[in-house]
Amino acid sequence: MNARIAFLLSLLMLNAVSCGSQTHKMSSIRYDCIEIPTITPDDMPEWPAAVFVFRDGKCVVLNETDAIGNIGTIDGIREGDSVVCVAGKLLPSLGFSRLDAGGDASEYRLGLADSDSEILTAGSIVKEVDGVLSQMLTPLTASVSLELKNASVCAMATLRLPETADTWIIAGNRLEFNGKQSERVVTNGEKVYILPQTDGVTGWRPEIEIKSGGMAFTPHIPKIGKIQAGQSTVFTIDLNNVSGNGSYVVSWKTTEIYGGKKLEEGSMEFVAEPETKGFYKVSVFSGGEWEPVQVYKTLCSDAAKHSLIWNDWGNAKALRDTMSYCIFENDFSAPVKVRVENLRSGVSSVEVRPTEYGIKAAAVSSNVVEFTIPSYEMRKLSVEFGEDRQHNLFIYGARPDRNKPSGSSSKVKYYGPGTYNAGTISLSEGQTLYIDYGAKVYGNVKAVGSGVTIAGNGILSGEKMKHWGDSQYSWGDFLVECRGDSGLTVKDVTFIDSPGWNMIVRSIDHVRIDNINMISWELNGDGIDIVSCKDVEIRDCFIRTYDDCVTLKCRFIVSPITDVSDVRIHGCLIWNDYARGIVVGPESGNINDSGRIHDIRINDCTFLQHKGSGTDDLRAAFAIGQGTDGKTSLWHGSPAPTEISDLTVSDLTFDNIASTGRNISIWQYGGSPKVRMSRISFDGIKVLDKYGNMYPAFNIMTRGSSISELTIKDFTVNGTTVTGCGSQFVIDVPANVGVSFQ
Question: Using 50, 70 and 90 to split pLDDT, how confident is the model at 296?
Answer without folding.
Answer: very high
